[in-house]
Amino acid sequence: QVHLVESGGGLVQAGGSLRLSCAASGRTSSSYTVAWFRQAPGKEREFVAAITGSGASTNYADSVKGRFTISRDNAENTVYLQMNSLKPEDTAVYHCAANSFIANNWLRTRTGSYNYWGQGTQVTVSS
């Protein structure tokens, strides 16, 4: 079992930055693919970014490319999401998710590809 805990959310003005953290414990593995998803009120959960175990491969939703950066520190069992130039439409609960290595780029963007989920952290961007 893998336990994921997100932190770093908060209230920020448009144009500001936040860094989210996803700390893993339990049967963690540096080979796991980890992703960030977000869910706004009344909307479905959507893919934000993903990173493979080595960090060699990353994926981003078009809506966050150039603004968000996903990274990981395997020594600390932590994955980060640096969010810059935040917009009000980025407001959502952000969840991290993990599973064994996911080779296919499309599968990394699907919620069904991940077995382990955190409870989420709220990000609110004011205009």
Brief sketch in words of this structure:
This protein has one helix spanning 105-108; strands at 2-7, 10-13, 18-26, 33-39, 46-51, 58-60, 68-73, 78-83, 92-99, 116-117, 121-126.
Please characterize this protein's 3D structure.
A hairpin with a 6-residue loop joins strand 5 and strand 6 (58-60). This protein starts with a strand and ends with a strand. The strands form two sheets. Strands 2, 4, 5, 6, 9, 10 and 11 form a seven-stranded mixed β-sheet that branches. The chain has one helix at 105-108, and strands at 2-7, 10-13, 18-26, 33-39, 46-51, 58-60, 68-73, 78-83, 92-99, 116-117, 121-126. The mean pLDDT is 95. With 127 residues, it is mainly beta.
Task: Describe the structure using short key phrases.
single chain; four-stranded antiparallel β-sheet; globular; 127 residues; mainly beta; 1 helix; 11 strands
Strand/helix succession: EEEEEEEEEHEE
Helix content: under 10%
Radius of gyration: 13 Å
Q: Outline, from the CA principal axes?
A: globular
Strand count, sense and barrel status of the largest sheet are: 7 strands, mixed
Q: What class, by secondary structure content?
A: mainly beta
Distance between the termini: 40 Å
Overall average pLDDT: 95
Total number of strands: 11
Count of alpha/pi helices: 1
Low-pLDDT windows of residues: none
Roughly what fraction of the amino acids lie in strands? over 45%
